[in-house]
Write a structure and sequence with these properties.
alpha+beta, ten-stranded mixed β-sheet, nine-stranded mixed β-sheet, 38% helix
Amino acid sequence: VEGGLERAGKSKKLSTSAPPSSDSAVFLRQAEQQAAKNPVGGGSAGGAGGKGRGPGRDEPSPFILRSAAIAAAGALAVVALVDPEEYSSSNILVRRHPSDIFDKRGYPKRPVPTRCEQIQRLKQEEEFDLLIIGGGATGTGMAADAATRGLKTAVVEANDFASGTSSRSTKLAHGGVRYLEKAFKNFDYSQLHLVFEALSERKRLLRNAPHLSRQLPIMTPCYHFWEVPYFWAGMKVYDTLAGRQGLTWSRYLTPYEAVRQFPTLRTENVHEGTLKGSIVYYDGQFNDARLCLLLACTAAEEGAAVANYTEVVGLLKDEDTGRVRGAKCRDKLTGRTFEVRARQVVNACGPFSDAVRQMSDPEARALVAPSSGVHITLPDYYSVEGYGMIVPKTRDGRVVFLLPWEGHTIAGTTDSESEITFNPRPSEKDIRFILEAIEDYLSVKVRREDVSSAWSGIRPLISNPDSANTSELVRDHLIMTDRNGLVTICGGKWTTYRLMAEQGVDRAIEEGKLSPKGACRTPSLKVVGGDGYHLGLHTEIAQEYVVPHRPGAIDTRVAKHLTAAYGDRARVVTRIAEDQGLGHRLARGHPQLEAEVAYAARYEYCTGVEDFLARRTRLAFLDARAAEQALPRVVAILGKELKWGWFRRRKELAQGKEMLKTFSQGTTA
């Protein structure tokens, strides 16, 4: 394979084995040497951990604690290398002032081009600098990066933006405490480096999408005395590795304080013992699907041609050199095909990356090892609004999170091998597994009928023939160039999407000999809606909005929902509600407004009811029954905005009901 396999865009070959020596001094010296070369965001030494040498959760080891303390001291040296000016608030890039965004009526002065206009541009443009195949987190992140560097950029997605894995995550921007534990237990530097990268990117994600994200304290309950120092030391290492990119420092809570903060926490665990306290650490939480969507919109505002429901059915090659120079695409809404030419093509299709690679080279070996992750949604009383909880080890050794999200509670995830499919569904077995895992830690009665929604996502892990199961694979990413010049980027995790995108664009520039007008700007680039956002914005929205269908002020919950989903564009949603009388809620007990449907159709490339219920809003993920209640009204408003006929409206209604069944019913597999 031309160019070889590379992790993180560096020249080191992909390794499929752990560091050769199990001696702690050799391991730490290797980590220090690599960190000195690449303190925060560079290449990875690669490698996936073997089976753990350290003790299990029931066998505390002083050696692990000593290793953690040594690593913490070494990490201080790494932190000292980080330039504080790089992350100062004065370097935040404000793309446009609000007065440049909105007209006097409150509508966008220069809205993004419509999907029809984008398709027309894809057909008419003689040649793009960069064509990105895939509209998930990495693909849209690359589009925003490349467009802000001045490259003529196009991105096509076979379905909707974030329709795959990018909308089905745990919604955490995190370094990965379990990867840190694996790094020390298995002396695996690749796991440690992944934590370094993720912690450096975590705060950037929170800062660049302030309305879509927040800090979240996460509680680790301890039911054995030895767990208190064990988890405390581990979280302090986690904090220290983050350095100036850290959030709030972790701390210990007594049993009384833990229950006061998390009232549904069990004080006695049948399998573990009585509560000895909790360690609280901080990570980030964000709205994954909307971040992906707004990255696509940001790219469009910066001049990129972006198109969902545009499937690549073949690759175009130079007749003389055999190099990939574009793609043959099919508009799935009209059935028409057309060609898009580009100087460089990038494959960012996540779990489907191998299918695109085999269009270029039928003999290309498989890279992706798909892993299924299932989550369920429960009522809000299962958790606390301001706290999450991690079950550090289930009965079979996996990790489960219990997190507050959008007025509900989500729990997950599983980690098991999976087939690659466009519409993965959770199995009833996985749903039961999650319920049983959290039941041991909660005083509330855990019931299957409380599950209001369930979903499954496929992680595109990089395959390793030496790993016994997908839970042992490293979540690092890989960038490679095949012999026909196609650049493929896959693997990784949501938290590091920006770094992956930057390194992917760097590789594309190198391979395609492109000439960008400037350097990468995404470390401080806010997405659409972020420029005018501040924590008190919901109060302004509440005071300015005139409810069209009744006297009185807007509900505070609705105002907070609008600003959390749309940022400064919440004003556009309320303006539509006022002007067109679309101020009613779509479903009882939920804050989503009718005006959001019209906004999504006009400004967010929404083409159907699934796009709206699952990704423009998250109603399908939160409450499948409420989404079905809202379905007829969503069809009516979208039909008016998109000029649907009777037949199309009936088709969308039927498809919406079928789609919601995948969230409300687990499979029997």
